Fold this protein.
Amino acid sequence: MSEYERSRTIAAPPEAVFDRAGDLDGLDEWLPQDLHVRPGELPAVTVHEDATGQDARALLRTDRDQLRMEWGTRDDGSYAGWLQVADSGDAESEVTIHLSFFDESHAPPGDAVDRALDDSLERLAGQVDRRG
């Protein structure tokens, strides 16, 4: 099993950050650029990966009261993750993304995962900034 976690402070209230992160129509704006989420009958979603051209059946749950999103593969249980937004005070938020790859043979290289997490958090911060 491989696990990865990254955090970033975003200068916005936690509810605003979570609302942007959890906006199903805007997930492509901050997720890794080669992943695209198509909502189905929630919590069911389909995730398309450009690099492989494959679709994966997944689940995506959001809990606004807890400012938390959780996701994972539906069929093989090979992948799961979560995003948590916490209040850092002074209208700032701490956003943490955690990924778990349960099947080592399908886990991407660690440095690629770290870069993707950092880039995703950067894009999420940019999306929050643009929405004001």
